[in-house]
Write a structure and sequence with these properties.
mainly alpha; Arc Repressor Mutant, subunit A; about 60% helix; about 10% strand
Length: about 160
């Protein structure tokens, strides 16, 4: 959890490690907006009786990969959510018949996940709900210039962190 000490009074520089009020507000706003948006998508999926967002994220990475398969460690680098439990999620998706897990022939330690036809169908079924929630709770609140500005700013941050 990200925690910033509350400010006692409005000052040019807050008590949170020398941040200005604007810097503190920007950071808190970014984290809260992310939490709200992910929650809104999760709520929309749940309301339609669909699995949680990490399932979509995992299946999407496989569906767009050449041949519909990736090593689990590669999926972990690509997913938008919870990278730490990719192995557990892959096991759950395999149990549901949405992916097949196959040991890597080259090194024996790695595992490949292959999306199944059922996994592709589920991902496609989840997409309209996901898309609608993002449009309703994010895109509809912004103009094209706002979206382009956010994209540019987020790219600048991502360039330092890798893909």
């Amino acid at each position: 959890m990200y925690y910033i000490r509350p400010m006692k009074k409005k000052t040019a520089v807050s008590s949170a490690g020398g941040w200005t009020d604007t810097e503190t507000s920007a950071w808190i706003g970014l984290v809260r907006a992310q939490q709200y948006l992910i929650g809104a998508v999760e709520d929309a999926l749940r309301a339609k009786g669909l699995p949680p967002l990490p399932w979509y994220d995992f299946l999407w990475e496989l569906d767009r990969a050449p041949g519909g398969n990736l090593r689990l460690n590669e999926i972990g680098r690509r997913v938008l959510l919870d990278k730490y439990n990719v192995t557990r999620l892959s096991q759950r998706l395999e149990k549901e018949g949405l992916v097949r897990r196959v040991p890597c022939a080259q090194d024996g330690r790695g595992i490949f996940a292959h999306i199944t036809p059922g996994g592709r169908r589920l991902r496609k079924k989840m997409w309209p709900v996901y898309e609608r929630a993002v449009k309703e709770h994010f895109l509809s609140k912004l103009g094209k210039e706002d979206i382009a500005r956010i994209d540019k700013l987020m790219r600048r941050i991502r360039e330092e962190s890798g893909p």
